[in-house]
Amino acid sequence: MDHYTPENFNLTRSVGFAINKARNVLITEMDAALKDLDITSQQMGILMSLRDSVATTPFELSKLLGIDTGLMTRMLDKLETKGLLERSRSIEDRRVVNLKLTKAGEAVAGRLPEIAPVVLNGRLRKFTKTEFQELRRLLYKFLED
Fold first, then answer.
1. In this structure, are residues 29 and 123 in contact, taking their beta carbons and an 8 Å threshold?
2. Element housing 88 (H / E)
3. Where are the chain's structural domains?
4. Domain 11-143 in this protein, CATH class
5. Considering only CA atoms, which of 94, 91, 109 is closest in space to residue 44?
6. For position 71, what pLDDT does the model report?
7. 87: which strand partners?
8. What CA–CA distance (Å, rounded) separates 101 from 48?
9. pLDDT beneath 50, residues of the chain
10. Strands 85-89 and 97-101
């Protein structure tokens, strides 16, 4: 079913516009909350993914977080320069780069579950539990292929 046509499409009333604007608001608020840790919300995703062993290579992180490989490389460079992660070549396949948090990276990643929920809950404060569950369900439905 097509929800939009050339006749009824309005940029500022489109789902894409609302999702993009919501993303930008959330990133701005999350970046401000992470300022003292000297990381960004995108870097938070990398650190938490490594901490939780959801992804352990740049390729896995790129796919999981929806970040192109060039940007991922630059972000990993910054995190490595900050001493938060280290790279090592796979023994089985030298083309594969494995990522691991340093002690400092583990410390920063350990603080993130204290910070991120405050930002998210601030945005969700007007939602009932049912509305929150429905929003989550609909977002994941939107993301399905």
1. yes
2. strand 85-89
3. 11-143
4. mainly alpha
5. 109
6. 95
7. 99
8. 10
9. none
10. antiparallel
Q: Tell me if 76 sits within 8 A of 59, measured CB to CB.
A: no
- pLDDT at residue 28, as a whole number: 98
Q: Is 109 exposed, middle or buried (0-12, 13-18, 19+ CB in 10 A)?
A: buried
Question: Which amino acid is residue 74, in one-letter code?
Answer: R
What was the pLDDT predicted at 81? Answer: 97
Q: What is the pLDDT of residue 95?
A: 83
What's the DSSP call for residue 113? H
Two structure tokens written together for 116: 């991120």
Residue 102 vs residues 11, 33, 49, 97: alpha-carbon distances, Å: 44, 22, 14, 15
Whether the model pTM is above 0.85: yes
Cβ burial 112-144 (10 Å sphere, 16+ → b, else e): beeebeebeeeeeeeeeeeeeeeeeeeeeeeee
Question: Taking the mean position of all CA atoms in its chain, how far away is CA 46?
Answer: 7
